[in-house]
């Protein structure tokens, strides 16, 4: 009699585990959800890293322009400003921008006319400050402006701030997408778990009569969902990592300093690799909570 009961109980457990077609279909759903989640997370991590890199590159950098239509006066003023800058303790490096470099930058708009020595192109000096603080930059800018009325000082942070704002907005958007996908994943698990319970209501009743507790029944469904989430997580995670790596290689190959900074560091790759683990844990916990609560109302 005991052997027959044990055999019936084992058969019921196999039915719960092996015939839950709705739960098995979750494997593809889990893979797709994790794939999209990892793409969103990679976007957020990459843009956050690029924004930090841009901040480091622009902090404490100034450009001085000497705007004068007379080339002789312009060059004399540029030499005076350069000498004054190199005497300032707050300035780590002052480098005049080569005329040939300016000509190359103006060529898309002026063509060959940009090489005309009579063209009133301002002389430019790039400054790297020893102190990246706001006070140091303001002090150097004020000192330089006092050297002449034709002198202008531009802070790199001011004209690149819109780009930085866009990157930070993309980072927050990616974070919101990750949270949204996590919520959607939990909702899918809840719906699948409830569907599985309804499908096997009769089997669960038999298991209860054989002495199974709610936690034991819940463990069977939880194990099935955890397996589906693991298989889907591994598949979707591997594909997502390959896609992210491919896009990173293509961006690096563009040779753009700005787009080249949109890459993932070592810590970012570790965080992405941990996402499938968090994904499986989330699915398992959502399944356990849902099933335990639902089983209280079945019998």
From TrEMBL:
It is found in: Cell membrane. InterPro entries: ABC3_permease_C, FtsX. It comes from Sphingomonas albertensis. This is Permease. Its main location: membrane. Coiled coil: none annotated. The keyword Cytoplasm does not apply. The chain crosses the membrane at residues 21-46, 169-193, 225-249, 269-291. The keyword Transmembrane applies. It is a multi-pass membrane protein.
């Amino acid at each position: 009699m005991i052997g027959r009961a044990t055999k019936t109980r084992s058969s019921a457990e196999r039915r719960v585990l092996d015939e839950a077609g709705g739960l098995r279909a979750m494997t593809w759903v889990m893979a797709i959800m994790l794939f999209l989640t990892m793409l969103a997370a990679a976007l957020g991590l990459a843009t956050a890293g690029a924004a930090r890199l841009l901040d480091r590159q622009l902090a404490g950098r100034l450009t001085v322009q000497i705007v004068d239509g007379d080339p002789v006066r312009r060059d004399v003023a540029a030499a005076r400003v350069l000498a004054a800058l190199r005497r300032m303790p707050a300035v780590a490096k002052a480098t005049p921008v080569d005329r040939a470099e300016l000509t190359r930058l103006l060529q898309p708009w002026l063509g060959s006319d940009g090489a005309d020595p009579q063209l009133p192109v301002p002389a430019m000096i790039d400054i790297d400050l020893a102190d990246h603080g706001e006070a140091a930059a303001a002090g150097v800018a004020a000192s330089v402006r006092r050297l002449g009325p034709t002198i202008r000082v531009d802070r790199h942070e001011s004209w690149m701030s819109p780009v930085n704002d866009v990157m930070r907005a993309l980072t927050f958007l990616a974070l919101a997408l990750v949270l949204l996908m996590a919520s959607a994943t939990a909702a899918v698990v809840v719906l699948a778990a409830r569907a599985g319970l309804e499908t096997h209501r009769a089997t669960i009743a038999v298991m209860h009569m054989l002495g199974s507790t709610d936690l034991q029944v819940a463990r069977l469904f939880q194990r099935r969902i955890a397996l589906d989430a693991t298989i889907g997580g591994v598949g979707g995670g591997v594909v997502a990592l390959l896609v992210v790596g491919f896009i990173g290689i293509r961006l690096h190959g563009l040779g753009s300093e700005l787009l080249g900074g949109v890459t993932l560091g070592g810590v970012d790759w570790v965080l992405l690799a941990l996402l499938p683990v968090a994904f499986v844990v989330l699915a398992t916990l959502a399944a356990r909570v849902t099933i335990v609560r639902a089983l209280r109302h079945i019998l």
